[in-house]
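Q: Sequence in, structure out?
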Amino acid sequence: MRWGYEEMRFARPIRWIVSLFGEEILPLELAKVKAGRVSRGHRFLGSQQLEIKNAAVYEETLAKEYVIVDQNKRKVLAWQSIQEVAAKAGMTVKEDKELLDEVTYLLEYPTALMGNFSENYLDMPEELIVTPMREHQRYFPVFDKAGKLLNHFIAVRNGNSDHLATVQAGNEKVLQARLADAAFFWQEDCQKPLEENLPRLENIVFHEKLGTLAAKVQRVAKLAAIIAAKLAYSKADQKATVRAAQLMKCDLVSHAVYEFTELQGTMGKYYAQVYNEEEQVALAIEEHYQPRFAGDVLPETKAGQALAMADRIDSLVGFFGQEMFPTGSQDPYAMRRQAMGVAQIIIKKQLDLSISELFAAAYDLYDPKLVKMVSNKADTVTNLVNFFKQRIDNIMTEEGAEYDVVNSVLSKPFDKPVESHQKAMALQVFRSEAGFAELIAGFTRAANLLKNANTDGMVKEALLNESSEKALYEGVVAVEAKTAVLLAEHDYLAALQTIGTLRPLIDDFFNQVMVMAEDEAVRNNRLALLAKVVGVTDKIGDLAKIVM
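A: Exactly. Output:
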């Protein structure tokens, strides 16, 4: 904020500044306020003219005036006070770091107190009670030992324990009004089924370049059905997926979500349950927003997984099709988070999906009469695949894959995230096994020899003169056959271990054979053999990129 005619921007007006080095006042001026040694205590409990003699006694002096300067000490005091109030009543409070942090920075001297509200409100969904309590009033909800929400709350006041009854009454009055509104919204929204809200989505613009929310719902329903078919969902699961897609955005025009936007999806679930929609349908309406943030839970139902992916992919394809790419500093449509959400679902749920196929299908679902794409389908898909590759890189790294392992796997054609992830994890395990360093040395040497070589990769057995090159050729042929089976079974660690059996054969070859022979035909044949050796890892990764 700007105050008066000053250009300085700050959260609040700056009234005074204390700036001391030992006992010396540092000559600082900010927003026409000169620094000194005079501060103030708590607004009601402390002195309004408080001289700080030196920097060493700053905290101690203010503590006597009901101001806890150290935010960490303040947080500990606040949480202890909350827990003591709950324990005294035989109740519990769930740890909530985000809310505790907010409360800590709102207060100077924390003191917790318990308030109450009518039991009648407990008939509403728990989230509709906790949200106004937590988000609007910064109250901590209270539970019994079994985790059931009770008609009590804990507030933290800025002050001591004087006149707590008055403070409690004031907090109860404010919450009563909030909950009365929530109850009204709940009752009004339950008067009609969710699907009656569908026509209203025609009047909501998803994005000015991508059409209405109603059009998005139609696209997502079709894309979710495509995903369900690719994953061989049962007929019941496919039906639930399509039904959930039709209803997934209907709660956005409800009274409750209009007031409490963070309850989108959650309220949709409850409204669906009120009108006896299938349980998977109700859950999928809520789950399609998951994961909402890093570390959040993933959808559990099949319908929820298909919807969560379809909703995000539709948005990503739309924005990339309009060439609205995220930059290093800006990502207004949270495209990185949306892509990461899709990647996490695919990998964690082990879903055999081609992302290029899904991007292409999503692109085709945009009606060219309604949405004019800037980028063509091929470029959009290519850009999105590359964008997705970085998200998969991040996931692999977070799970312990080293950078060279990730580079090795992602240097090969990338399309199925779950396969790339499995390969990286297998290679990470394989690199710790005995003989790996020697194997990599052999592969790297072979790759280096091939850098400037022109070979069609066809090995002519008649030109294999030395016993070691014959043995290597026979070994490679056998390994190719074995790994083909293992790769088809997605057993990448076993495939790598099978490739590892070539190590002594590669060593013997390099010890006994002159690759760059004078005879051009023999030289090219030996290079072709090395190309065949290097090629056995093509469907897993480029081992030459491993750094030892």
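The two ends are 54 Å apart (CA to CA).
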